[in-house]
Design brief:
By secondary structure, the protein is an alpha/beta fold. The protein has 14 helices and 12 strands. Helices cover 41% and strands 14% of the residues. The strands form 3 sheets. The protein has an 8-stranded parallel β-barrel, surrounded by 7 helices. A two-stranded antiparallel ribbon has the order 1-2. A two-stranded antiparallel sheet has the order 6-7. The longest helix is centred in the middle third of the chain and has 21 residues. The protein is globular and about 50 Å long. It starts with a strand and ends in a 24-residue tail after the last helix.
């Protein structure tokens, strides 16, 4: 329901206030003044209470998000790394391994799925969505349609998928999804141009508004790519500009912040920069950027790993949780939760249990990092291996 906002009559502020005589009043020319009221639209989605509750549930202490929303093509690359063909049965087997890991819900509050997985069942005939629900894990869904070249920019991209988004979100909600993800990117070596930043922010805001109208908590993800040799100070400068623009357009689109989650990149130097930053430095710059741009009404900051090694992503998250933050500062990792799992599984049924234990170990490590209690003692060499790929696509 819209609310009516009564403005102070124009005649009052023109007169300089009650009891005061102004130069304007003493003028021999009298200008007629219209009294008016303005109607300010207030967002009143039928899903508002549910959106807030869903966001709070995902942003719960010691838990984060497992991102397994890679497209079929990207999932195929993951499978190829262990010698498996990119077939639906192989994708099903891998995602079933992940989503049926015993005890996963202790550390994972949400899982972002690709559309195929949202409608898929296990080999035993149980819906993947029901596997998540039974584990107290909220099902989510990737809703963007990927990146395409942005005309008029400096070789930059924009994210497509707004056409038909409302109907897709409504169908995903019926299927059991309760949150959504839309990823767009900003490239520092390419500028970024003002056009690319505005396009990223506007697209995210339109998506967020549409998702909320259909019952899905939007994860807002403008990824600042690691590609480049820039300093951490340059990343900070760009990230601050991007997030300021994002929140401007979220406000313009009446997005309910309490029913929204963010998925930012950590503020780090470019992958090719000659000097690496410590977790403490990354935490300092990242939190400084967030505190300058993100209102405390947002319940959860779910960081992406962006090609960092498993241990690196966990150490950086832990450093950010050494003091209290206005929001739940947690993780939404894909490769930084899956790399050891894939290497352990190798597509062999006899390795299933060991692979699930590897996932549980990484999830627990990041749970401890969310609580600020993680130590890297006992980490394997595999967990320390960097996963950055130049020009990486999902």
């Amino acid at each position: 329901m819209a609310a009516t906002l009564k403005l102070t009559p124009t005649s009052q502020w023109l007169s300089g206030g009650a009891g005061r005589s102004s130069d304007f009043q003493r003028s021999s020319v009298r200008t007629p003044v219209r009294r008016s009221t303005a109607v300010a639209p207030i967002r009143a989605s039928a899903y508002s209470d549910e959106l807030v509750q869903t966001a709070k549930s995902i942003a719960s202490p010691g838990r984060g998000i497992l991102a397994i929303d890679e497209s079929n093509a990207t999932c195929g690359k993951r499978l190829a790394s262990i010698g498996l063909e990119n077939t639906e049965p192989n994708r099903q087997a891998y995602r079933q391994l992940l989503l049926t890991t015993p005890g996963l819900g202790e550390f994972i509050s949400g899982a972002i799925l690709f559309e195929e997985t949202l409608y898929q069942s296990t080999t035993d005939g149980k819906k993947m969505v029901d596997c998540l629900r039974d584990a107290k894990i909220m099902p989510g869904i990737k809703v963007d349609k990927g990146l395409v070249p942005l005309p008029g920019s400096n070789n930059e991209s924009w994210c497509q998928g707004l056409d038909g988004l409302a109907s897709r979100c409504a169908e995903y909600y019926k299927q059991g999804a309760r949150f959504a993800k839309w990823r767009t990117v900003v490239s520092i070596p390419c500028g970024p141009s003002a056009l690319a930043v505005k396009e990223a922010a506007w697209g995210l805001a339109r998506y967020a508004s549409i998702a909320q109208d259909n019952g899905l908590v939007p994860i807002v993800e403008p990824e600042i790519l690691l590609d480049g040799d820039h300093t951490i100070e340059r990343t900070f400068e760009v990230a601050q500009k991007v997030w300021a623009e994002v929140f401007f357009y979220l406000s313009q689109n009446n997005v309910l912040l309490e029913g929204t989650l963010l998925k930012p990149s950590m503020v780090t130097p470019g992958a090719d920069h000659k000097t690496k930053s410590s977790p403490e430095t990354i935490a300092k710059f990242t939190l400084k950027m967030l505190k300058r741009t993100v209102p405390p009404a947002v319940p959860g900051i779910m960081f992406l790993s962006g090609g960092q090694s498993e241990m690196e992503a966990t150490l950086n998250l832990n450093a950010m949780n050494q003091s209290l933050n206005p929001w739940h500062v947690s993780f939404s990792y894909a490769r930084a939760l899956q790399n050891s799992v894939l290497k352990t599984w190798q597509g062999r049924p006899e390795n299933l249990e060991a692979a699930q234990k590897a996932l549980l170990a990484r999830a627990k490590a990041n749970s401890l990092a969310q609580l600020g209690r993680y130590t890297s003692e006992g980490e394997s060499d595999e967990s320390k291996a960097g996963m950055f790929q130049k020009g990486y696509t999902y």
